[in-house]
Design the sequence.
């Protein structure tokens, strides 16, 4: 897959407000937040989308969900609740082709999404 803006954030070539980092994952505030808390959780491995993950990524995908929980606690939305979204492909509204989980909270979120 081709290089994305998230690869550059991982390499710290462009700034981001990082809230969590370990050897496998990075979490940072979305530059265009859609809620009081809007963080993106990404793997450092450049997987294009959830649809492109393979069986060898199963442990990594589980780790990302664990990181989501840690970040939600850190940003104090764990008790009020939050939403986790991953957009896939054109109809899913994906604009950056590096798998990412949106973690949205800090206000009541409507359903269904548009
Ligand atoms: P998607 O539309 O692919 O599901 O989500 C991509 C998200 O990445 C969008 O919410 C967008 O605001 C965010 N984004 C795009 N470029 C940057 C950037 O350079 N820095 C940060 N922090 N977020 C970005």
Sequence:
């Amino acid at each position: 897959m081709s290089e994305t803006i998230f690869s550059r954030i991982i390499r710290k070539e462009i700034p981001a407000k990082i809230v969590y980092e370990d050897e496998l994952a990075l979490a940072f505030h979305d530059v265009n937040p859609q809620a009081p808390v809007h963080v993106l959780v990404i793997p450092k491995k450049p997987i294009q989308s959830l649809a492109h993950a393979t069986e060898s990524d199963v442990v990594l995908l589980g780790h990302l969900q664990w990181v989501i929980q840690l970040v939600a606690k850190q940003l104090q939305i764990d008790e009020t609740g939050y939403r986790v979204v991953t957009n896939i492909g054109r109809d899913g509204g994906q604009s950056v082709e590096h798998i990412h989980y949106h973690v949205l909270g800090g206000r009541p979120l409507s359903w269904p999404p548009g």
Summary: The chain has a mean pLDDT of 97. The longest helix spans residues 58-74. The first strand starts at residue 18 and ends at 21.
